[in-house]
Amino acid sequence: MAQGRSAATSSFGWPLRLGASPLLLLVTLLLAACLGSALAVITTSHLTRDQYARLQQLEREQQQLQTEWGQLLLEESAWSSPARIERLARERLEMRLPEIDEVEVIRP
Length: 108
Hints:
Layout: H1 2-12, H2 22-79, H3 82-92
């Protein structure tokens, strides 16, 4: 009877055999590799979505800055027009164009 027990116990092991079989080790390694690969894909997808959202935000910001730059160029051209500068020189600084006899030419 003792032999029957030992035969049943040795075929099942407690709860598994202490020495891991190469097949069990291979399956465990493949499972770990699959889980690692899945986590890497998930992480990469998440980072890609984050970067794409950041890209869209920067493109919107670039468009707003381009619009503002265009408005500033228009404003600069309005403030620096020759007619405006001449009018301000007459009104505020009391400047005028010299007469012909007031012009002196200096030659080297």
